[in-house]
Protein backbone atom coordinates (compact mmCIF):
# COMPACT_ATOMS: atom_id res chain seq x y z
CA UNK A 1 0.00 0.00 0.00
CA UNK A 2 1.33 3.38 -1.00
CA UNK A 3 2.77 5.45 1.85
CA UNK A 4 1.58 9.02 2.10
CA UNK A 5 4.68 10.74 3.34
CA UNK A 6 4.65 14.11 5.12
CA UNK A 7 0.94 13.83 5.89
CA UNK A 8 1.28 13.03 9.55
CA UNK A 9 3.93 13.37 12.16
CA UNK A 10 5.71 10.19 13.26
CA UNK A 11 3.19 7.84 11.64
CA UNK A 12 3.39 6.15 8.25
CA UNK A 13 0.02 6.89 6.73
CA UNK A 14 -1.26 4.60 3.98
CA UNK A 15 -4.12 5.33 1.63
CA UNK A 16 -6.00 2.49 3.28
CA UNK A 17 -5.66 4.02 6.73
CA UNK A 18 -6.68 7.42 5.38
CA UNK A 19 -9.88 5.94 3.93
CA UNK A 20 -10.52 4.24 7.27
CA UNK A 21 -10.13 7.53 9.11
CA UNK A 22 -12.60 9.24 6.78
CA UNK A 23 -15.05 6.38 7.32
CA UNK A 24 -14.93 6.97 11.06
CA UNK A 25 -16.04 10.56 10.58
CA UNK A 26 -19.61 11.04 11.80
CA UNK A 27 -20.00 13.74 9.16
CA UNK A 28 -20.68 12.74 5.61
CA UNK A 29 -18.02 13.64 3.07
CA UNK A 30 -18.60 13.34 -0.61
CA UNK A 31 -16.75 14.56 -3.62
CA UNK A 32 -18.12 15.31 -7.08
CA UNK A 33 -16.10 15.69 -10.26
CA UNK A 34 -16.59 18.40 -12.90
CA UNK A 35 -19.59 16.47 -14.33
CA UNK A 36 -21.42 16.14 -10.99
CA UNK A 37 -20.49 12.47 -10.75
CA UNK A 38 -19.83 11.18 -7.23
CA UNK A 39 -16.22 10.04 -7.12
CA UNK A 40 -15.79 9.61 -3.36
CA UNK A 41 -18.11 9.12 -0.40
CA UNK A 42 -17.50 7.94 3.16
CA UNK A 43 -19.55 5.43 5.14
CA UNK A 44 -21.78 8.08 6.74
CA UNK A 45 -23.87 8.10 3.56
CA UNK A 46 -25.61 4.90 4.69
CA UNK A 47 -27.11 6.51 7.79
CA UNK A 48 -28.26 9.54 5.79
CA UNK A 49 -29.71 7.85 2.68
CA UNK A 50 -29.70 4.10 3.40
CA UNK A 51 -27.30 3.65 0.48
CA UNK A 52 -24.02 1.79 0.66
CA UNK A 53 -20.91 3.45 -0.76
CA UNK A 54 -20.94 1.10 -3.75
CA UNK A 55 -24.54 2.13 -4.56
CA UNK A 56 -23.45 5.76 -4.76
CA UNK A 57 -19.98 5.80 -6.32
CA UNK A 58 -19.96 6.64 -10.02
CA UNK A 59 -23.59 7.80 -9.93
CA UNK A 60 -24.66 11.23 -11.08
CA UNK A 61 -25.61 13.42 -8.11
CA UNK A 62 -28.35 14.96 -10.28
CA UNK A 63 -29.87 11.50 -10.80
CA UNK A 64 -29.85 10.71 -7.05
CA UNK A 65 -31.37 14.11 -6.29
CA UNK A 66 -34.13 13.44 -8.83
CA UNK A 67 -34.82 10.11 -7.14
CA UNK A 68 -35.57 12.06 -3.96
CA UNK A 69 -32.59 11.12 -1.77
CA UNK A 70 -32.14 14.72 -0.56
CA UNK A 71 -33.62 18.16 -1.00
CA UNK A 72 -33.09 20.91 -1.87
CA UNK A 73 -30.37 20.52 -4.48
CA UNK A 74 -27.11 22.31 -3.94
CA UNK A 75 -24.92 21.29 -6.87
CA UNK A 76 -26.28 23.50 -9.71
CA UNK A 77 -25.62 26.73 -7.82
CA UNK A 78 -22.09 25.71 -6.74
CA UNK A 79 -21.17 24.77 -10.32
CA UNK A 80 -22.74 27.90 -11.72
CA UNK A 81 -21.48 30.48 -9.18
CA UNK A 82 -18.20 28.66 -8.43
CA UNK A 83 -18.51 29.81 -4.84
CA UNK A 84 -18.82 27.83 -1.58
CA UNK A 85 -22.39 27.27 -0.45
CA UNK A 86 -24.00 26.34 2.89
CA UNK A 87 -27.49 24.99 3.17
CA UNK A 88 -29.90 22.97 5.28
CA UNK A 89 -30.97 19.76 3.57
CA UNK A 90 -33.27 16.88 4.46
CA UNK A 91 -32.83 13.32 3.27
CA UNK A 92 -35.18 10.53 2.29
CA UNK A 93 -34.58 8.93 5.71
CA UNK A 94 -35.56 12.12 7.53
CA UNK A 95 -32.05 13.26 8.52
CA UNK A 96 -31.64 17.03 8.67
CA UNK A 97 -28.21 18.06 7.44
CA UNK A 98 -26.17 21.20 7.50
CA UNK A 99 -24.31 20.86 4.23
CA UNK A 100 -21.38 22.79 2.86
CA UNK A 101 -20.09 22.48 -0.67
CA UNK A 102 -16.70 23.88 -1.66
CA UNK A 103 -15.77 24.05 -5.36
CA UNK A 104 -12.14 23.48 -6.36
CA UNK A 105 -11.25 25.22 -9.62
CA UNK A 106 -8.57 24.31 -12.17
CA UNK A 107 -6.23 26.74 -13.91
CA UNK A 108 -8.95 27.50 -16.52
CA UNK A 109 -11.31 28.56 -13.74
CA UNK A 110 -13.49 25.48 -14.32
CA UNK A 111 -14.95 23.42 -11.48
CA UNK A 112 -12.75 20.36 -11.16
CA UNK A 113 -14.09 18.98 -7.89
CA UNK A 114 -16.78 19.85 -5.35
CA UNK A 115 -16.03 18.74 -1.79
CA UNK A 116 -19.20 18.42 0.24
CA UNK A 117 -19.54 17.77 3.96
CA UNK A 118 -22.84 17.20 5.70
CA UNK A 119 -23.37 17.27 9.46
CA UNK A 120 -26.56 16.21 11.15
CA UNK A 121 -28.37 19.29 12.38
CA UNK A 122 -29.71 17.36 15.35
CA UNK A 123 -26.16 16.96 16.67
CA UNK A 124 -25.45 20.61 15.98
CA UNK A 125 -28.55 21.81 17.82
CA UNK A 126 -27.82 19.63 20.82
CA UNK A 127 -24.26 20.88 20.91
CA UNK A 128 -25.46 24.47 20.87
CA UNK A 129 -28.00 23.78 23.59
CA UNK A 130 -25.32 22.24 25.75
CA UNK A 131 -23.30 25.38 25.27
CA UNK A 132 -26.33 27.21 26.70
CA UNK A 133 -26.63 29.50 23.72
CA UNK A 134 -30.38 29.20 23.89
CA UNK A 135 -30.73 27.15 20.71
CA UNK A 136 -32.57 23.93 21.30
CA UNK A 137 -34.15 21.15 19.28
CA UNK A 138 -37.84 21.45 19.97
CA UNK A 139 -39.99 18.40 20.58
CA UNK A 140 -42.66 20.13 18.57
CA UNK A 141 -40.37 21.28 15.80
CA UNK A 142 -41.87 20.71 12.40
CA UNK A 143 -41.55 17.10 11.35
CA UNK A 144 -39.76 16.54 8.10
CA UNK A 145 -42.04 15.17 5.46
CA UNK A 146 -41.05 11.52 5.22
CA UNK A 147 -41.81 9.39 2.22
CA UNK A 148 -42.27 5.68 2.14
CA UNK A 149 -38.77 4.32 2.67
CA UNK A 150 -37.58 1.33 0.70
CA UNK A 151 -34.54 -0.17 -0.93
CA UNK A 152 -36.47 -3.25 -2.04
CA UNK A 153 -36.95 -3.76 -5.79
CA UNK A 154 -40.36 -5.36 -5.28
CA UNK A 155 -41.66 -2.42 -3.25
CA UNK A 156 -40.04 0.03 -5.68
CA UNK A 157 -41.94 -1.62 -8.52
CA UNK A 158 -45.15 -1.31 -6.50
CA UNK A 159 -44.45 2.43 -6.13
CA UNK A 160 -43.77 2.76 -9.86
CA UNK A 161 -46.99 0.91 -10.56
CA UNK A 162 -48.99 3.21 -8.26
CA UNK A 163 -47.62 6.21 -10.17
CA UNK A 164 -49.02 4.67 -13.35
CA UNK A 165 -52.47 4.35 -11.81
CA UNK A 166 -52.31 7.85 -10.31
CA UNK A 167 -54.57 9.29 -12.99
CA UNK A 168 -57.26 6.63 -12.62
CA UNK A 169 -59.93 6.50 -9.93
CA UNK A 170 -59.85 2.73 -9.63
CA UNK A 171 -60.44 1.17 -6.25
CA UNK A 172 -57.30 -0.34 -4.72
CA UNK A 173 -57.03 -3.32 -2.39
CA UNK A 174 -53.80 -3.58 -0.38
CA UNK A 175 -53.20 -6.93 1.27
CA UNK A 176 -50.37 -7.80 3.63
CA UNK A 177 -49.45 -8.72 7.17
CA UNK A 178 -50.05 -6.27 9.97
CA UNK A 179 -47.44 -3.51 10.22
CA UNK A 180 -46.03 -3.91 6.69
CA UNK A 181 -46.93 -0.33 5.76
CA UNK A 182 -50.31 -0.70 4.04
CA UNK A 183 -51.45 2.59 5.57
CA UNK A 184 -48.26 4.35 4.48
CA UNK A 185 -48.74 3.00 0.95
CA UNK A 186 -52.37 4.16 0.87
CA UNK A 187 -51.24 7.68 1.75
CA UNK A 188 -48.51 7.49 -0.88
CA UNK A 189 -51.09 6.50 -3.51
CA UNK A 190 -53.22 9.48 -2.50
CA UNK A 191 -50.25 11.86 -2.54
CA UNK A 192 -49.20 10.78 -6.04
CA UNK A 193 -52.75 10.86 -7.43
CA UNK A 194 -54.56 13.75 -9.05
CA UNK A 195 -56.67 13.90 -5.85
CA UNK A 196 -53.69 14.94 -3.72
CA UNK A 197 -55.17 18.37 -3.00
CA UNK A 198 -58.32 16.71 -1.66
CA UNK A 199 -58.74 15.07 1.77
CA UNK A 200 -57.25 11.70 2.74
CA UNK A 201 -59.42 10.15 5.43
CA UNK A 202 -58.86 6.87 7.24
CA UNK A 203 -61.19 4.63 9.17
CA UNK A 204 -60.28 1.39 10.87
CA UNK A 205 -63.23 -0.95 10.38
CA UNK A 206 -62.06 -3.24 13.21
CA UNK A 207 -61.82 -0.51 15.82
CA UNK A 208 -65.47 0.62 15.71
CA UNK A 209 -68.66 -1.37 16.50
CA UNK A 210 -70.75 -2.20 13.38
CA UNK A 211 -73.66 0.23 14.10
CA UNK A 212 -71.30 3.09 14.78
CA UNK A 213 -69.22 2.30 11.70
CA UNK A 214 -72.30 2.76 9.51
CA UNK A 215 -73.07 6.23 10.89
CA UNK A 216 -69.39 7.22 10.80
CA UNK A 217 -69.24 6.30 7.12
CA UNK A 218 -72.64 7.43 5.90
CA UNK A 219 -73.41 10.18 8.40
CA UNK A 220 -76.92 10.66 9.77
CA UNK A 221 -79.79 13.10 9.65
CA UNK A 222 -81.03 15.03 12.75
CA UNK A 223 -82.76 12.66 15.20
CA UNK A 224 -81.86 9.55 13.14
CA UNK A 225 -81.47 7.43 16.26
CA UNK A 226 -81.48 7.76 20.03
CA UNK A 227 -78.35 9.45 21.22
CA UNK A 228 -77.62 10.94 17.80
CA UNK A 229 -76.39 14.50 17.57
CA UNK A 230 -79.39 16.86 17.16
CA UNK A 231 -77.92 18.56 14.13
CA UNK A 232 -77.00 15.32 12.39
CA UNK A 233 -73.50 14.48 11.23
CA UNK A 234 -71.60 14.38 7.97
CA UNK A 235 -70.15 10.93 7.29
CA UNK A 236 -66.65 10.15 6.07
CA UNK A 237 -67.91 9.34 2.58
CA UNK A 238 -69.12 12.91 2.22
CA UNK A 239 -66.15 14.43 4.05
CA UNK A 240 -63.77 12.62 1.69
CA UNK A 241 -65.44 14.11 -1.40
CA UNK A 242 -62.80 14.91 -4.09
CA UNK A 243 -60.26 12.92 -2.09
CA UNK A 244 -59.49 9.40 -0.92
CA UNK A 245 -61.13 7.27 1.75
CA UNK A 246 -58.88 4.59 3.26
CA UNK A 247 -60.82 1.68 4.74
CA UNK A 248 -58.36 -0.17 6.95
CA UNK A 249 -59.08 -3.75 8.02
CA UNK A 250 -61.97 -4.05 5.57
CA UNK A 251 -62.19 -7.79 6.32
CA UNK A 252 -63.84 -6.91 9.64
CA UNK A 253 -66.77 -5.05 8.07
CA UNK A 254 -70.21 -6.64 8.63
CA UNK A 255 -71.94 -8.26 5.64
CA UNK A 256 -74.83 -5.76 5.72
CA UNK A 257 -72.46 -2.79 5.64
CA UNK A 258 -70.48 -4.48 2.86
CA UNK A 259 -73.69 -4.43 0.76
CA UNK A 260 -74.10 -0.69 1.35
CA UNK A 261 -70.49 0.03 0.55
CA UNK A 262 -70.81 -1.90 -2.71
CA UNK A 263 -73.65 0.38 -3.70
CA UNK A 264 -71.60 3.49 -3.01
CA UNK A 265 -68.75 2.15 -5.14
CA UNK A 266 -71.10 1.26 -7.99
CA UNK A 267 -73.38 4.31 -8.00
CA UNK A 268 -71.21 6.97 -6.32
CA UNK A 269 -74.33 7.82 -4.32
CA UNK A 270 -75.59 7.05 -0.82
CA UNK A 271 -78.31 7.92 1.67
CA UNK A 272 -77.29 8.99 5.22
CA UNK A 273 -78.69 6.97 8.14
CA UNK A 274 -82.30 8.07 8.82
CA UNK A 275 -82.42 10.17 5.63
CA UNK A 276 -84.27 9.99 2.28
CA UNK A 277 -82.21 12.21 0.07
CA UNK A 278 -79.41 10.73 -2.00
CA UNK A 279 -76.00 12.37 -1.84
CA UNK A 280 -73.50 12.22 -4.66
CA UNK A 281 -69.80 11.80 -3.92
CA UNK A 282 -66.60 11.73 -5.91
CA UNK A 283 -64.17 9.61 -3.92
CA UNK A 284 -61.53 7.00 -4.46
CA UNK A 285 -61.61 4.06 -2.10
CA UNK A 286 -58.47 2.29 -0.98
CA UNK A 287 -59.09 -0.73 1.23
CA UNK A 288 -56.57 -2.78 3.20
CA UNK A 289 -56.61 -6.04 5.06
CA UNK A 290 -54.26 -8.46 6.75
CA UNK A 291 -56.76 -11.30 6.20
CA UNK A 292 -57.10 -13.54 3.18
CA UNK A 293 -60.17 -12.02 1.52
CA UNK A 294 -60.37 -14.67 -1.20
CA UNK A 295 -60.64 -17.33 1.48
CA UNK A 296 -63.21 -15.25 3.37
CA UNK A 297 -65.27 -15.08 0.16
CA UNK A 298 -65.22 -18.88 -0.10
CA UNK A 299 -66.33 -19.12 3.51
CA UNK A 300 -69.09 -16.57 2.80
CA UNK A 301 -67.70 -14.14 5.33
CA UNK A 302 -67.00 -11.52 2.67
CA UNK A 303 -69.20 -10.59 -0.29
CA UNK A 304 -67.84 -11.86 -3.58
CA UNK A 305 -69.19 -8.91 -5.57
CA UNK A 306 -67.56 -6.39 -3.21
CA UNK A 307 -64.32 -8.36 -3.30
CA UNK A 308 -64.16 -8.04 -7.10
CA UNK A 309 -65.08 -4.36 -6.95
CA UNK A 310 -62.31 -3.62 -4.44
CA UNK A 311 -59.85 -5.87 -6.16
CA UNK A 312 -59.65 -3.81 -9.38
CA UNK A 313 -56.06 -3.01 -8.43
CA UNK A 314 -54.60 -5.59 -6.11
CA UNK A 315 -51.34 -4.86 -4.29
CA UNK A 316 -49.54 -7.21 -1.93
CA UNK A 317 -47.24 -5.55 0.58
CA UNK A 318 -44.41 -8.01 1.31
CA UNK A 319 -43.52 -8.74 4.94
CA UNK A 320 -40.28 -7.21 6.26
CA UNK A 321 -38.53 -10.61 6.46
CA UNK A 322 -38.84 -10.82 2.64
CA UNK A 323 -37.26 -7.40 2.13
CA UNK A 324 -34.30 -7.45 4.43
CA UNK A 325 -32.66 -4.69 2.40
CA UNK A 326 -35.22 -2.31 3.99
CA UNK A 327 -34.21 -3.07 7.60
CA UNK A 328 -31.12 -0.83 7.77
CA UNK A 329 -32.60 2.24 6.02
CA UNK A 330 -35.78 1.96 8.10
CA UNK A 331 -33.72 1.62 11.30
CA UNK A 332 -31.79 4.78 10.46
CA UNK A 333 -35.02 6.56 9.60
CA UNK A 334 -36.55 5.70 12.96
CA UNK A 335 -33.29 6.59 14.70
CA UNK A 336 -33.40 10.08 13.16
CA UNK A 337 -37.08 10.46 14.04
CA UNK A 338 -36.77 9.42 17.69
CA UNK A 339 -33.47 11.22 18.23
CA UNK A 340 -35.27 14.35 17.13
CA UNK A 341 -38.38 13.63 19.17
CA UNK A 342 -36.53 12.89 22.40
CA UNK A 343 -33.75 15.41 21.81
CA UNK A 344 -31.13 12.69 21.88
CA UNK A 345 -28.16 11.89 19.75
CA UNK A 346 -27.93 8.10 19.90
CA UNK A 347 -25.84 6.14 17.44
CA UNK A 348 -26.23 2.49 16.50
CA UNK A 349 -23.40 -0.02 16.06
CA UNK A 350 -22.89 -1.96 12.83
CA UNK A 351 -23.09 -5.29 14.74
CA UNK A 352 -26.45 -4.28 16.13
CA UNK A 353 -27.74 -3.35 12.66
CA UNK A 354 -26.50 -6.69 11.30
CA UNK A 355 -28.33 -8.49 14.08
CA UNK A 356 -31.54 -6.66 13.20
CA UNK A 357 -31.27 -7.97 9.65
CA UNK A 358 -31.09 -11.58 10.88
CA UNK A 359 -34.35 -11.30 12.82
CA UNK A 360 -37.68 -12.31 11.22
CA UNK A 361 -39.85 -9.33 12.37
CA UNK A 362 -43.26 -10.98 12.83
CA UNK A 363 -44.70 -7.53 13.65
CA UNK A 364 -43.01 -6.08 10.54
CA UNK A 365 -42.09 -2.38 10.25
CA UNK A 366 -44.25 -1.38 13.22
CA UNK A 367 -42.28 -3.75 15.47
CA UNK A 368 -38.98 -2.35 14.18
CA UNK A 369 -40.20 1.21 14.75
CA UNK A 370 -41.30 0.42 18.32
CA UNK A 371 -38.00 -1.30 19.08
CA UNK A 372 -35.89 1.61 17.82
CA UNK A 373 -37.97 4.03 19.88
CA UNK A 374 -37.38 1.92 22.98
CA UNK A 375 -33.66 1.63 22.24
CA UNK A 376 -33.26 5.37 21.71
CA UNK A 377 -34.85 6.00 25.09
CA UNK A 378 -33.18 3.25 27.10
CA UNK A 379 -29.70 2.65 25.68
CA UNK A 380 -26.43 4.46 26.34
CA UNK A 381 -24.92 6.72 23.70
CA UNK A 382 -24.34 3.84 21.26
CA UNK A 383 -27.10 1.29 20.74
CA UNK A 384 -25.36 -2.07 20.76
CA UNK A 385 -26.18 -5.77 20.46
CA UNK A 386 -26.39 -6.08 24.25
CA UNK A 387 -29.29 -3.58 24.26
CA UNK A 388 -31.46 -5.82 22.09
CA UNK A 389 -34.29 -7.70 23.81
CA UNK A 390 -33.55 -11.35 24.61
CA UNK A 391 -36.45 -12.43 22.45
CA UNK A 392 -34.56 -11.26 19.34
CA UNK A 393 -31.42 -13.16 20.32
CA UNK A 394 -33.30 -16.34 21.08
CA UNK A 395 -35.31 -16.33 17.92
CA UNK A 396 -32.16 -15.83 15.83
CA UNK A 397 -30.50 -18.75 17.54
CA UNK A 398 -33.57 -20.99 17.12
CA UNK A 399 -33.80 -20.31 13.43
CA UNK A 400 -30.65 -21.35 11.52
CA UNK A 401 -31.80 -19.48 8.41
CA UNK A 402 -31.75 -16.22 10.37
CA UNK A 403 -28.55 -16.71 12.34
CA UNK A 404 -25.11 -15.70 11.07
CA UNK A 405 -23.74 -18.33 8.62
CA UNK A 406 -21.90 -21.20 10.30
CA UNK A 407 -19.61 -22.11 7.39
CA UNK A 408 -18.05 -20.56 4.32
CA UNK A 409 -20.28 -22.69 2.07
CA UNK A 410 -23.38 -21.47 3.83
CA UNK A 411 -22.22 -17.86 3.57
CA UNK A 412 -21.56 -18.33 -0.18
CA UNK A 413 -24.96 -19.94 -0.66
CA UNK A 414 -26.72 -17.09 1.13
CA UNK A 415 -24.81 -14.47 -0.87
CA UNK A 416 -25.71 -16.29 -4.13
CA UNK A 417 -29.34 -16.45 -3.07
CA UNK A 418 -29.46 -12.74 -2.37
CA UNK A 419 -27.78 -11.76 -5.65
CA UNK A 420 -30.00 -14.03 -7.76
CA UNK A 421 -33.18 -12.89 -5.99
CA UNK A 422 -32.27 -9.24 -6.38
CA UNK A 423 -31.57 -9.68 -10.09
CA UNK A 424 -34.75 -11.73 -10.66
CA UNK A 425 -36.89 -9.18 -8.81
CA UNK A 426 -35.46 -6.48 -11.05
CA UNK A 427 -35.43 -8.24 -14.41
CA UNK A 428 -38.17 -10.86 -14.05
CA UNK A 429 -36.79 -13.09 -16.83
CA UNK A 430 -34.10 -15.77 -16.89
CA UNK A 431 -32.59 -14.31 -20.08
CA UNK A 432 -32.08 -10.92 -18.47
CA UNK A 433 -30.83 -12.44 -15.21
CA UNK A 434 -28.28 -14.42 -17.24
CA UNK A 435 -27.12 -11.23 -18.94
CA UNK A 436 -27.08 -9.26 -15.67
CA UNK A 437 -25.06 -11.87 -13.78
CA UNK A 438 -22.95 -12.89 -16.78
CA UNK A 439 -23.95 -16.56 -16.59
CA UNK A 440 -25.56 -18.94 -19.09
CA UNK A 441 -29.34 -18.91 -19.36
CA UNK A 442 -29.46 -22.62 -18.35
CA UNK A 443 -27.60 -21.74 -15.17
CA UNK A 444 -29.88 -18.75 -14.56
CA UNK A 445 -33.00 -20.95 -14.93
CA UNK A 446 -31.55 -23.44 -12.41
CA UNK A 447 -30.68 -20.71 -9.90
CA UNK A 448 -34.09 -19.06 -10.26
CA UNK A 449 -35.77 -22.42 -9.63
CA UNK A 450 -33.60 -22.90 -6.56
CA UNK A 451 -33.80 -19.46 -4.98
CA UNK A 452 -36.80 -17.58 -6.36
CA UNK A 453 -39.76 -19.98 -6.21
CA UNK A 454 -41.79 -17.55 -4.09
CA UNK A 455 -41.10 -14.63 -6.45
CA UNK A 456 -42.46 -16.28 -9.58
CA UNK A 457 -45.95 -14.85 -9.18
CA UNK A 458 -45.57 -11.42 -10.69
CA UNK A 459 -48.88 -9.99 -9.52
CA UNK A 460 -48.40 -7.21 -6.99
N1 LIG B 1 -41.79 1.98 4.21
C1 LIG B 1 -41.98 2.67 5.35
N2 LIG B 1 -41.28 3.78 5.57
C2 LIG B 1 -41.42 4.47 6.75
N3 LIG B 1 -42.26 4.09 7.75
C3 LIG B 1 -42.98 2.98 7.56
C4 LIG B 1 -42.89 2.21 6.36
N4 LIG B 1 -43.72 1.15 6.45
C5 LIG B 1 -44.31 1.25 7.65
N5 LIG B 1 -43.88 2.34 8.32
C6 LIG B 1 -44.28 2.73 9.70
O1 LIG B 1 -44.61 1.53 10.38
C7 LIG B 1 -45.82 1.66 11.11
C8 LIG B 1 -46.85 0.65 10.59
O2 LIG B 1 -47.25 1.00 9.28
P1 LIG B 1 -48.79 0.92 8.81
O3 LIG B 1 -49.71 1.35 9.90
O4 LIG B 1 -48.89 1.63 7.49
O5 LIG B 1 -48.90 -0.65 8.63
P2 LIG B 1 -50.20 -1.50 8.25
O6 LIG B 1 -49.74 -2.58 7.33
O7 LIG B 1 -51.26 -0.58 7.73
O8 LIG B 1 -50.61 -2.10 9.66
P3 LIG B 1 -52.05 -2.66 10.13
O9 LIG B 1 -52.39 -3.83 9.24
O10 LIG B 1 -51.81 -3.11 11.54
O11 LIG B 1 -53.02 -1.52 9.99
C9 LIG B 1 -46.27 3.10 10.95
O12 LIG B 1 -45.85 3.85 12.05
C10 LIG B 1 -45.57 3.57 9.68
O13 LIG B 1 -45.29 4.94 9.74
From TrEMBL:
<keyword id="KW-0058">Aromatic hydrocarbons catabolism</keyword>
<feature type="domain" description="Dicer dsRNA-binding fold">
    <location>
        <begin position="444"/>
        <end position="460"/>
    </location>
</feature>
<dbReference type="InterPro" id="IPR000014">
    <property type="entry name" value="PAS"/>
</dbReference>
<keyword id="KW-0067">ATP-binding</keyword>
<keyword id="KW-0805">Transcription regulation</keyword>
<dbReference type="Pfam" id="PF18024">
    <property type="entry name" value="HTH_50"/>
</dbReference>
<dbReference type="InterPro" id="IPR005034">
    <property type="entry name" value="Dicer_dimerisation"/>
</dbReference>
<dbReference type="GO" id="GO:0006355">
    <property type="term" value="P:regulation of DNA-templated transcription"/>
</dbReference>
<protein>
    <recommendedName>
        <fullName>HTH-type transcriptional regulatory protein TyrR</fullName>
    </recommendedName>
</protein>
<dbReference type="InterPro" id="IPR035965">
    <property type="entry name" value="PAS-like_dom_sf"/>
</dbReference>
<keyword id="KW-0804">Transcription</keyword>
<dbReference type="GO" id="GO:0016301">
    <property type="term" value="F:kinase activity"/>
</dbReference>
<dbReference type="InterPro" id="IPR025662">
    <property type="entry name" value="Sigma_54_int_dom_ATP-bd_1"/>
</dbReference>
<dbReference type="GO" id="GO:0016891">
    <property type="term" value="F:RNA endonuclease activity producing 5'-phosphomonoesters, hydrolytic mechanism"/>
</dbReference>
<dbReference type="InterPro" id="IPR003593">
    <property type="entry name" value="AAA+_ATPase"/>
</dbReference>
<dbReference type="InterPro" id="IPR030828">
    <property type="entry name" value="HTH_TyrR"/>
</dbReference>
<dbReference type="Pfam" id="PF25601">
    <property type="entry name" value="AAA_lid_14"/>
</dbReference>
<feature type="domain" description="PAS">
    <location>
        <begin position="14"/>
        <end position="62"/>
    </location>
</feature>
<dbReference type="GO" id="GO:0003677">
    <property type="term" value="F:DNA binding"/>
</dbReference>
<dbReference type="InterPro" id="IPR025944">
    <property type="entry name" value="Sigma_54_int_dom_CS"/>
</dbReference>
<dbReference type="Pfam" id="PF00989">
    <property type="entry name" value="PAS"/>
</dbReference>
<dbReference type="InterPro" id="IPR013767">
    <property type="entry name" value="PAS_fold"/>
</dbReference>
<keyword id="KW-0547">Nucleotide-binding</keyword>
<dbReference type="InterPro" id="IPR002078">
    <property type="entry name" value="Sigma_54_int"/>
</dbReference>
<dbReference type="GO" id="GO:0005524">
    <property type="term" value="F:ATP binding"/>
</dbReference>
<dbReference type="InterPro" id="IPR058031">
    <property type="entry name" value="AAA_lid_NorR"/>
</dbReference>
<keyword id="KW-0418">Kinase</keyword>
<keyword id="KW-0808">Transferase</keyword>
<dbReference type="Pfam" id="PF00158">
    <property type="entry name" value="Sigma54_activat"/>
</dbReference>
<feature type="domain" description="Sigma-54 factor interaction">
    <location>
        <begin position="148"/>
        <end position="377"/>
    </location>
</feature>
<dbReference type="InterPro" id="IPR027417">
    <property type="entry name" value="P-loop_NTPase"/>
</dbReference>
Amino acid sequence: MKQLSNLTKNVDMTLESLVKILDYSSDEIFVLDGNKTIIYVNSACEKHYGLKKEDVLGKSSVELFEQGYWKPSLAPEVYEKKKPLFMKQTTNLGAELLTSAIPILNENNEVELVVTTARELQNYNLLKRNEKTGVSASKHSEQTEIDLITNCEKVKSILKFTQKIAVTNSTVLIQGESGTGKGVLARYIHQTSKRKEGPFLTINCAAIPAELLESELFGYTPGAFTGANRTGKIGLLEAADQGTLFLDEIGEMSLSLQAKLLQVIQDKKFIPVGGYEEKKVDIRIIAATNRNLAEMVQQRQFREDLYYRLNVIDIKMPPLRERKEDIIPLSYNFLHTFNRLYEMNKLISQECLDMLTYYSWPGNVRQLENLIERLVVTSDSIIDVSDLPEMIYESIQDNPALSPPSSLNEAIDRAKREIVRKSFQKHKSSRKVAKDLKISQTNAVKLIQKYCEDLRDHSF
